[in-house]
Amino acid sequence: MLASPIDTADTAEMQTARAWTPEQQIANMLELCGVQMESALQDSDVAVDALIKAFTSVAETARVMNSMAEQLPAEARQHIEQALNKQLDEITRQIAAAVVSFQFYDKLTQRLGHVRYSLSSLAQFVCDRAQSSERDQWRRLLNALRRLYRTEEERKIFEMITEGISVDLTTTTSDAQQPPKTGEIELF
User: What distance in Å separates the CA atoms of residue 25 and residue 27, rounded to the nearest whole number?
Assistant: First the structure.
């Protein structure tokens, strides 16, 4: 005899009820957060790739303009050289500013990758009741996650949170929010 659709639905519901645990629900929600972050990162990568192509094109155009200006006869060059140099300097300044912005984007994507990895690790960890109920296993997890953080700001926030200290982002991130001075490029 074949199972009726109602019997099949009841069986699936009973299996779901048996598999349901608070830990599994936490893990599912953490995985949801991780996947949403990954999706946002992928979308932003597409936009950044387009920006990189645009700035590369602008830089090449500026180079060609400079080359063309050098080929002008001396009398014509005198009239437009100063104005052209001013425009080329402005393009160069804007490209430098864009590079700094890309560096902040790179830092952001690295940090979100760390968060995603942490969420994934935590999701797996909480599903193992034996592991998640042991204090020593929590220390191991925290030590593994601590190694992810590369910047002083990330390490400071991690330490504060793991020590149970409330974090005020306005005080912990104030230095990191300051862009480098003009002409400086900071690598993350």
Answer: 5
The burial of 41, by beta-carbon neighbours within 10 Å (0-12 exposed, 13-18 middle, 19 or more buried), is given as: middle
> Residue 8 domain-assigned?
no
Q: How far is CA 87 from CA 52, 69, 80, 130, in A?
A: 21, 12, 11, 66
- Is residue 83 domain-shared with residue 162, that is, in the same domain? no
Q: Is the pTM of this model over 0.85?
A: no
Distance CA 58, CA 7 (A): 65
CA pair distance 179, 47, nearest whole angstrom: 22
- Share of residues in the chain with pLDDT > 90 (%): 2
Asked if 80 and 72 touch (Cβ cutoff 8 Å), the reply is: yes
DSSP H or E run through 22: helix 22-70
25-39 in b/e form (b: 16+ CB < 10 A) is ebbeebbeebeebee
pLDDT beyond 80 at 178: no
Place of tokens 């005080």: 171
Residues 74, 125 within the same domain: yes
